[in-house]
Predict the 3D structure of the following.
Amino acid sequence: MALAPKQGGVPPGRRANPFDGELARANSAYASYRGGGLVREPSGGPVTPQEEFVHDSLRALVLNPRFSCVGAKAAIRRGQYRAGLYGTMGSRGAVAGLARDLFEFVEDLPRIGGDFTTFLASFGGPAVVEEMAFERLLWAQLQGLYEQDRPHHGWDPTVSADPADPDFSFSFAGRAFFVVGLHPASSRYARRFAWPTLVFNLHEQFERLREGGRFARVREVIRAREIELQGSLNPNLSDFGELPEARQYSGRPVGEGWRCPFDTGEEDTSGEEGQT
């Protein structure tokens, strides 16, 4: 990962990045898609060949005609996203670099625009060989981001901080996200990707779809495409407010006794332990 330049003055209307430390800058990989290729933000300079290769591979997956998520397709096709390639998922460096870059993404949202906006965080390792291992990595990475974030920002008040609550969504920099995990050992074809990856989808964009009367149609299109591709729907699939969305993040089918391995100090301590 290239060393990101230290920030100078903060432009008007933009918050200073509280995660802009030395470790974060050394592991930052914030990039956007401009002019037909991936470039470093905000300079517009080149990214590494590895970053370009992973990004182009992920872009090809999402834009495949058989890929089920039409929202992701729209964001990628229109360039309404940011991306980064980090080190080992869950490591101090990956947490620090992603915290810095995810904050920049939040601050960039007004100029990115669009109905569908997303941040693609891929990791160089470790090699994931089964779904439980990826689930642990995913929640370790999110726990690390939360620990970085909580001295600076409160949880998005539009969602719950309790992962057992049907109204839960992950929050960072005061904004709620629906997180989608991809990895090479996923049992779901649309989530099978060579590098472990976290896709951060802004939660409020789904609320805008609901308010505009478009959510149900988008949901049905995605589900129909998923059935066509896979032959079935992910058993964890539910609408926001029905079941905790934390069950969906890793993509691993989980049973009723599953407990989210994520601690904000507000979880429901009743029920069974996480499945093994």
